[in-house]
Amino acid sequence: MREGSPAAAAAAAASASPASRVSMKTPGGGRRGTRRASSEQPPALPAPSQPGGAALPPRCQLPLLSPRLTNNSRVVGLLAQLEKISTEPTESDTARYVTSKILHLAQSQEKIRREMTAKGSTGMEVLLSTLESTKDLQTTLNILSILVELVSAGGGRRASFLVAKGGSQILLQLLMNASKESSPNEELMVQIHSILAKIGPKDKKFGVKARINGALNITLNLVKQNLQNHRLVLPCLQLLRVYSANSVNSVSLGKNGVVELMFKIIGPFSKKNLSLMKVALDTLAALLKSKTNARRAVDRGCVQVLLTIYVDWHRHDNRHRNMLIRKGILQSLKSVTNIKLGRKAFIDANGMKILYTTSQECLAVRTLDPLVNISSLIMRKCFPKNRLPLPTIKSSFNFQLPVIPMSGPVAQLYSLPPEVDDVVDESDDNDDIDLEAENETENEDDIDQNFKNDDIETDINKLKPQQEPGRTIEDLKMYEHLFPELVDDFQDYDLISKEPKPLVFEGKGRGPIVVPTAGEEAAGNSGNFRKGVVMKENVSPLGDEGDKKPSFMDLAKEDIKDNDRTLQQQLGDQNRTISSVHGLNNDIVKALDRITLQNIPSQTAPGFTAGMKKDYSLPLTVVTCSKACPHVAACGNVLFEGRTVQLGKLCCTGVEIEDDEDTEFASSMEQVSVEVADDGPTLHDSDLYIEIVKNTKSVPEYSEVAYPDYFGHIPPPFKEPILERPYGVQRTKIAQDIERLIHQSDIIDRVVYDLDNPNFIVPEEVDILKFNSKFESGNLRKVIQMRKNEYDLILNSDINSNHYHQWFYFEVSGMRPGVAYRFNIINCEKSNSQFNYGMQPLMYSVQEALNARPWWTRVGTDICYYKNHFSRSSVAAGGQKGKSYYTITFTINFPHKDDVCYFAYHYPYTYSTLQMHLQKLESAHNPQQIYFRRDVLCETLSGNSCPLVTITAMPESNYYEHICQFRNRPYVFLSARVHPGETNASWVMKGTLEYLMSNSPTAQSLRECYIFKIVPMLNPDGVINGNHRCSLSGEDLNRQWQSPNPDLHPTIYHAKGLLQYLAAVKRLPLVYCDYHGHSRKKNVFMYGCSIKETVWHTNNNASSCDVVEDVGYRTLPKILSHIAPAFCMSSCSFVVEKSKESTARVVVWREIGVQRSYTMESTLCGCDQGKYKGLQIGTRELEEMGAKFCLGLLRLKRLTSPLEYSLPSSLLDFENDLIESSCKVTSPTTYVLDEDEPRFLEEVDYSAESNDELDIELAENADYETSTQEEVLSDSDSSRTFLP
């Protein structure tokens, strides 16, 4: 016995002086069962019987422990005795006795088992040491039984504990020694295999150890020689299944005939040997995961055999008591169909029809859902891969770039030979290459290890912001004229009079369609403006420099010196309120108490409405027709000279005017009008919109205007809850897809819309829906009628790209009410979507708009998002093979006959809408109160202007002190809509702009605090042409901020130039924020930049402790979490990743030096916390978020001002509030949907998958629905959390 060991000490204590103590260490680290030992010698134990019947000899008798001694102390004493005698071969009888007593205690009490495996206990070491040294069979069997008891009831922790003590190696060696006997003891083999099968999965090196020790063939030969001995074969099969988890072992076993051996055990329906059958099937499924074994099984006709066996069990298992066996057969089929040869054999054996039929018969029994789900997965996998029915995956529209990039996906796109078929499926070309040779490198060290995020930047030197001018001072002077506020002396402005000026209306005689929208925060009306006070004309940065003024580069130093002197005055000015604006003229409001689509006579003064009233009757001339309606025909050719702009056809059989007596609806609308239209003139003007559209340049040269953009949108007066998805909806949809293959005669397969065919004629049949997307921001490429009321829709790629399909916006007409139409958008690329978590698409009904309900509503039932059978070519997937597209499917019941309806991914917000809103804001503001400039930052590739907006408060006077205070206000730089498909960003920006231009006291105070520089749409071309992600250059502009090309990325180049200019003149913005949308997460949240938190997430806590960092970057998100109901602080992240080093957020932080540089992400779906929990998000909430962001900036100013109150410690509690989440981001490729957000998988009953940022494909084997979780959709791993 080893001297000084805990067991030896305990043994000595058990027989020592009366002062001795006997104790056992407990899991808590304390001592239990301590007692004073008696001074008298205890009487001798009688010699008990052994299992073999022999009595222990007298010399082996042990001292009898007192009855007062606890069981814990008894085990300690027994273990100590065992350790003492384990080194003495002559003590084998005593060892048998001691181990039998320990076995009895372990079998009878969980407490004993728990404490023998507790941290600090040496019991396991003593048992293993004895097992390794003993030559006695009975002692070995006793110890093995003890180990089985210990690991059987303790779950994985105890098995891992045994592995950590070296148990697997000792047991494998014992197996080797036992196999050398001429006739191995059956009981010994059963016990060894049983315990190895339990601990093997917990040992990362078990497969290698087993192969090196030669255990594979020992177990395999035992099965071959004892096929009828089910008691021995069962644990052997369990261990074979563990061996097979290692691919090299699996191939080795396959070569030795293990697959054929399994088919000798499994067979048709039988009530005998069910446990053996189940284990054999599980082992077979594990073996067939090896492609080598799968091919061997296919060559021997095993696919047909498995299908036959499955049908037999399906027919005879009437009471469904053997579901696990049926599931095991399906798991084997799932494994063998992972290879192309297996899928072909499955199809040839009529497997699709067999599994389809059996799964449909199982639908009635909920407990059989696992069988239905696995059958569904197998059928989807074996469904023949189809190419998209397109001539090319490149966009239907072509735009020639001024410069072709030297590298990257766009360069590859241009370098493709014209004869290359970029749609063809190449996914299985290399499917059968054997990658599992015997000499395969072992990678088991990497298996089960914690995922390490290599994307997180770990170099602190790279993380530290380093201001880099990038451009020369002389070069940056081109932006001086975009900052006139820094040099203007305001001598030409009337800044004295504070009286409100009369409201003057401008425009044509024809009245606008008024659609009020506004956020909640605005308290006043901003309709007062003075005609005749004109701001300076807009100037392009690349054009004339306008009036020559002193260079601000030269004046910067002088102005900066005045900061301290003017700071108190600035803070004082915050508290001033302007009380000169009170609202719209009451007579005008009374005159405009209805929404109208009728031409207003020219003598009627047009104006703005402040809300919708009860009277919703429309003076419409209603005619029964099948062509364009007279009351909208005037919007066509006859109105305009030059370029023709038309509204689409509005077919109707009579507009359904709602009853005016609907008091409930009227009262609800009255309530909404108070909330929505509380801030003066609305920003929608249909006539103005048409005029702006005429000057908007699109690649397809659109000549139509979508009705929703013409009519406008107001938030509906009702809540729209997140949709609860019915159980099993995905498998139902997949089954309907599989029916296309089984019942091909039912498929119509008729093209009803095709952008690629310029000569395509729309079918005239009355029972076919009509489609259109030839308008601004529209995206629909092709529509195929598959069944009478089911249509497959294909989206257009981003221009100069061959992917990025997610955004859709299209028109449908010719519908019949009461008919369920199914739409399938079949070429989506993201591997998950909020459509799987309660989000619905949006629909806009023209007839509803004519009935005074001009709003987008969430619609659709049976919505899901799943991987389909259309294959992405390697050209489309950047060289990756085997990628598939995904389907968004939803079912619609239209409320009106022959309506014109529009569907969209999210609330559309076009470039022309932005220009209209900016023009309305400019014409409606009070120039004595608000400093507003609308400049042109630059021109886009297609010749559209990129607007730049400047907003602040006018100086109190043109006195020197007031001008200095004006010039020294800190800047806030905002941008939005760099990704065209994230339309919610524009709605948030609309809320911000409206709030900044409102006349509420807080808005005035905010304007007095800051100068706002805003680029509300960074990607106008992408928005106009219906792109989802890219500009016309075919590149994600939010990956170009590091080195923007002025020819390919002009908006980014000049937006960065503005920030570089501010840095050069020592006027760094206090805050930079880029508004985005997030397709996979709920709520609104922010991404920022922090060195400390980035290092923290690398698990290098020592390094993070050395970092000293101002935690002020957390202030604004914390403020927003308190004041904005949609904002969620726990979703925010401040980690900097390598893959995001070219995004606006990181570049502005790292290169420009703005500490508070953020991306603000708004959900496309809804909220799962706060006031809006359980509701889908709408434009009202998005605009409110934009207004709340402004309020957050006002509070930030007060918190960060040195003369204001000090910052509460709770607001910046960095350590306690650090976001706890593991970083598991893999670097995206340029071909994958890499976005500004991480993948996010919610805790829901099903999963299917997105980031908006990283599109990481997960294992195909995960996209089926299970019974334990309500539903599992395609391709996700819920155990991983990804940070941006």
Automatic annotation (TrEMBL):
Residues 1264-1284 have a biased composition (Polar residues). It is an enzyme of class 3 (hydrolase). SUPFAM superfamilies: ARM repeat (SSF48371), Zn-dependent exopeptidases (SSF53187). Residues 436-448 have a biased composition (Acidic residues). Its main location: cytoplasm. Pfam families: Pepdidase_M14_N (PF18027), Peptidase_M14 (PF00246), TPR_CCP1_N (PF25571). The active site is at E1161 (proton donor/acceptor). It is found in: Cytoplasm, Cytosol; Mitochondrion; Nucleus. Residues 1-20 have a biased composition (Low complexity). Its EC number is 3.4.17.24. Its cofactor is Zn(2+). CDD domains: M14_Nna1 (cd06906). It catalyses: C-terminal L-alpha-aminoacyl-L-glutamyl-L-glutamyl-[tubulin] + H2O = C-terminal L-alpha-aminoacyl-L-glutamyl-[tubulin] + L-glutamate; (L-glutamyl)(n+1)-gamma-L-glutamyl-L-glutamyl-[protein] + H2O = (L-glutamyl)(n)-gamma-L-glutamyl-L-glutamyl-[protein] + L-glutamate. The keyword Ligase does not apply. InterPro entries: ARM-like, ARM-type_fold, CBPC1/4, Cytosolic_carboxypeptidase, Pepdidase_M14_N, Peptidase_M14. The keyword Transferase does not apply. Residues 1-61, 436-455, 1261-1284 are annotated as: Disordered. Keywords: Carboxypeptidase, Cytoplasm, Hydrolase, Metal-binding, Metalloprotease, Mitochondrion, Nucleus, Protease, Zinc. Residues 907-1197 form the Peptidase M14 domain. Belongs to the peptidase M14 family. This is Cytosolic carboxypeptidase 1. It comes from Pipistrellus nathusii. The lineage of its organism: Eukaryota, Metazoa, Chordata, Craniata, Vertebrata.
